[in-house]
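Bench notes, afternoon.
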Amino acid sequence: MIDGPVPTCSKGRIGQAKSKNGCLTCKIRRVKCSEEKPECRRCTSTGRKCDYKAATGHDFKSWSRNPTPQWRNLSGSQSPPLVVALDSHPVGLLGDCSVELRAFEYFFMRGLPIFPRAIDNRFWKTCILQACHAEPVIWDAVISLSALFEHPQYSKEPVRGLRGAPRKSPGTPAKDPAHQQALVWYSRSLSKLRKGLANGMVNDTIVLISCILYICIELLQDNVTEVLQLYHHGAGIMSKYIRNTNASLIDECFTPLFYNFSALATCMDYIPPGMVVVRNLQISDHFSSLEEAEMGLYRFLSRGITHARASEQVLLFEKNVPKERMAELQAEKEFLWDELDKWYQRFRAMGFTLESSNITPAEKYLTVKLLQAHATFRVSIATSMVISEMANDDLTAEFEDMLRYGRFGIEAIRYPDGTQPPFSLETSMALPLFVCATKCRDYRIRHEALDLLQQAPPVQGLCNATTHAVMAAKVVGLEEAGLDDESMFIPEERRISHFFITSKKSETGADMWVLQYTRNIPGQDGYRIVTDLSPF
């Protein structure tokens, strides 16, 4: 781990006491706020958005006097309400360390808003903010993540973030001062965590919070292998509590994140061991909230994706498959299809749609994500156990939905200046748009999906949107090569059924990325599977 100087904190404020009533915009700019409401003069005179949200009425003192905060107990009940002050610092820091406080404020202002999933609110907007005040391990991890969020350290190469790609060793020098600072804080957090574990002073809650933050830190450095190791470690801890019916903190804070992450890991063919165990795969009779609906859907994703992969394997790459195995897969397909339809009927009964006018922006965003995931899941299950790529032509309505919801989702997470956030821990819109671009052969739909995919946040959990956009463009180009008319039908023999990026040696011996893909060529005796390579 890289060592480096830790910023020295000042011993206190000199002069007049600092007002805590200013707006968030002035706080993040570190200038004195004139404190007019609803908009201060300093912001309006410079054309900036003035925001007082969460800037007042937050005081850690009453909470920190509680010697055993409820969030520290994995089987505890309701946690205390969110209380956070932007100029607070963790226990053990003396005075005001401006560099660290600025990093925390940046995370609060620019980082937290990109975690909009309703079921993550308690983790990102309660557990994290409370824990980072009381636990130096979490504070250091948060400010390290903030530094990487502001200055992402992932590669600028079009194909990156893949398992097996060259990775930085622990001794590799930092790329720039911002990276150096992030690694210093990361190293400090890891050191404190190891020391706390050795002394028995760190419980599983802190380890799980640290684990999720470390996953984010490694994702912003393209370290996929480390991410999977961290996930496996966190899932192993969670498995101890999975049968504890009173583990409300697990259910409300950590389980949703790990369900989402395990589904994405499965979809990306990483499928790490020690996945979160699903307690109940059947859809309940009704959903009482969007959060419950999301959990109901994501419980199916890992199994559904695993089923699709298994059916692809037996159809394309295995010979003499026993009839019993084929019957088992067909029965599983029918079960998943029925349960998915049941989920959709329960969801529709809640009345949430893209056109709903009586819901919050966060609820609408989550609604769009769920409906897009549902459409994607329908495509995956409908085409499983079918070798012909022509089956996708019957799913144009689903592809239209994936595109429509993706269009809304991409716009919803843009910053006011039109840019996209550099990172999201969740799957977001990238994978559905990727499926739409590669599996839909309608020219208009697939090309608009490809365009939206190229606008998405570069890193979305394990999904590297930049790499997926390059891969999708390659698939589209290979299938449409030689077509003079946009409306021309793409025949079966030109359609790519299975593909992935791999590393090969060039004629000069250098490593190079290539797309390895298969086509299903129909004939009188069935299909002939042809494999080919195409360099980037």
